[in-house]
């Protein structure tokens, strides 16, 4: 996955309104007016948020007649999930190895196996 | 989950160096010097990235003797995964419902069931 895609997608989701818009579009497509309806902000402000999400590849806007319909781009959400899952699994694998080490050695410091310092008692 | 936690965590991961640091710490704890070693940037620059990650709750720095040891905070990674999974599941559930609808009705427009406009032929 191109770093730029992840950069833009993580940055776009760092705003609660944009996360809320993505969450609502996950429940179903909507027109720009429908997306804007719940917010106490101008249609222009909501359109700016949608433009950020579109540039991030998280939302697609298509023209249907005179309306612009918004839908979520699941491929980019999947790219974020893949990144998080891969590294989360690395941590879990490490914890499992430490559990095994603990089971084998009966060590009382399984979480810092290479650390010579002792915990203060 | 507090919006601020997600705001800071998504924003922190919008930078490829910070994602790389998190990825490496998922493989194992490291000192600040070890974290900085692969990068063509000053120790101070790496420390700034670590400070952003620490404020975002993604990395914990603890003093061990004269060294500062960095480790990943899995709870915040889990919060991001939970947010993404919840909404990804909503999309999947919607697609399943549309598949069922398609199977029942034989409709040729299963992805826009509420849209009266026809696709241009």
From TrEMBL, chains A, B:
It comes from Nocardioides imazamoxiresistens. InterPro entries: ArsR-like_HTH (IPR011991), HTH_ArsR_DNA-bd_dom (IPR001845), WH-like_DNA-bd_sf (IPR036388), WH_DNA-bd_sf (IPR036390). SUPFAM superfamilies: Winged helix' DNA-binding domain. It comes from the Bacteria. Signal peptide: none annotated. Residues 1-92 form the HTH arsR-type domain. This is Metalloregulator ArsR/SmtB family transcription factor. Residues 102-121 are annotated as: Disordered.
